[in-house]
Amino acid sequence: MATLHIEHSIVNYDLWKAAFGRFAELRARSGVRHHRVLRPVDDPEYVVIDLDLDTVPEATHFLEYLRERVWSSPENAPALIGTVHARILEQAD
Fold first, then answer.
1. What is the pLDDT of residue 69?
2. Over the stretch 46-93, which tens digit does the pLDDT of each residue have?
3. Per-residue CA distances from 8 to 5, 22, 33, 37 (Å)
4. 66-75: Cβ within 8 A, 24+ apart
5. Which of 31, 36, 64, 75 fits a 20 to 30 Å CA distance from 5?
6. pTM of the model
7. CB neighbour list of residue 28: distance below 8 Å, 6 or more residues apart
8. d(Cα 93, Cα 86) in Å, to the nearest integer?
9. What pLDDT is recorded for position 93?
């Protein structure tokens, strides 16, 4: 399994959540098996997202899609501000 780990600042959680929800079907078609959304207790305008996929190539392909088609478009990512930090992780044990 591979986890696509994403972190970024947002302007408003409800706006971000609505945009995130619009991509649910795309996530499923792209191989996302499970997702977790977390927020720091001291920063409600920051999100941490973990997307679990079966393979590193699937995660890599989805990350490229997000960079090219989602995060680069204010229409697709209306709540996003600043730089997105993303990396693909594998279980170490």
1. 94
2. 999 999 999 999 999 999 999 999 999 989 999 999 999 999 999 998
3. 11, 18, 22, 12
4. 66/6, 70/23
5. 75
6. 0.94
7. none
8. 22
9. 83
Q: What is the 3-state secondary structure (H, E, C) of the chain?
A: CEEEEEEEEECCHHHHHHHHHHCHHHHHHCCCCEEEEECCCCCCCEEEEEEEECCHHHHHHHHHHHHHHHCCCCCCCCCEEEEEEEEEEECCC
Residue with tokens 């996530």: 27
State percent of the chain over pLDDT 90. 97
- Other beta carbons within 10 angstroms of residue 44's beta carbon come to 11
Joined together, the tokens standing for residue 69 give: 């088609």
For residues 72, 88, 85, 6, the Cα torsion angle rounded to the nearest 10 degrees is 80
Token pair for 11 = 């302007």
Structure tokens at 93: 């044990």
